[in-house]
Amino acid sequence: MDTSTDTLVARVEGLGKSYGSIQNRVAALRDVTLGIRRGEFTAIMGPSGSGKSTLMHIMAGLDSVSSGRVWLGDTEITSLADDALTILRRRRVGFVFQSFNLVPTLDIEDNILLPFELDGRRPSDAERQWIDQLVASLGLGARLRHRPHELSGGQQQRVAIARALATRPDLVFADEPTGNLDSRTSREVLTLLATASREYGQSIAMVTHDPIAASYADRIVFLADGAVVRDLGKSTPEEISGLMLGMERAA
Ligand SMILES: Nc1ncnc2c1ncn2[C@@H]1O[C@H](COP(=O)(O)OP(=O)(O)OP(=O)(O)O)[C@@H](O)[C@H]1O
Predict the structure, then answer these.
(1) β-strand 171-175 against 203-207: which pairing, if any?
(2) Nearest ligand 1 atom to alpha carbon 207
(3) pLDDT tens profile 41-68
(4) Distance between CA atoms of 222 and 210, rounded to whole angstroms?
(5) 2 to 13, 32, 35, 65, 217: CA distances (angstroms)
(6) What is the pTM of this model?
(7) pLDDT (tens digit, 9 = 90+) per residue, 170-221?
(8) Residue of 17, 19, 30 to test ligand 1 pocket, by largest number of atoms within 8 Å of CB
(9) Helix, strand, coil proportions of the chain in percent (round to 5)?
């Protein structure tokens, strides 16, 4: 595998993760080696229980490994202490969740600015311009003084995307970002993610069950039973569904 940090924004090597006691051990990941390429929109797919969330949590520094090593850029995060990990996550990683995870008591602007607030600083002039551009391109300009509950699900997810992109993180993790949205709104959100990657060079890793969502990605990595079993370039929803069916039959 190419391990250059010019091309890879994150990578895991020989990654293993087990849960439970010795008698009841569950191997969630088995010897996974994978690089996430810089500037690409990568989808991570696989059946329920195949290890997608575990892989994402470990790459984001939210969960520990049982074996193997993990890098974000050229920083090996496997050996970082908790407080260093928290700072690294705050500065270099963005998150978009299925349930939006906006702060209900903050207005939309303060939700978008939250990563800066948590980092104890204000956006620079250049960052302010970038945020204004994001707000305009996501159509949130008229909503900045509203609270999250006053917005539709699709609008809330757009706020979460603006928040995730605001600090220009090395990598945005999206966990089933369209899981709570209808199909038209899902397409809008996926188009925004694909555009962020194509036009701004934002690296994105998205966990999804949905072949249509995965078809927006540049690359699709399939997990089964804790291991990478396929690694595809851009594919149609039909190709992805066909592959998933084949994998289910083989299982
Ligand atoms: N905290 C935990 N304690 C015990 N077992 C766990 C824990 N987290 C995950 N597992 C187990 O690890 C395996 C992989 O789980 P994981 O959540 O990563 O799969 P997934 O592909 O994300 O599934 P889904 O699509 O259903 O969210 C499963 O067998 C799961 O039961």
Answers:
(1) parallel
(2) 22
(3) 999 999 999 999 999 999 999 999 999 9
(4) 12
(5) 12, 15, 8, 22, 21
(6) 0.93
(7) 999 999 999 988 998 899 889 999 999 999 999 999 999 999 999 999 999 9
(8) 19
(9) 40, 25, 35
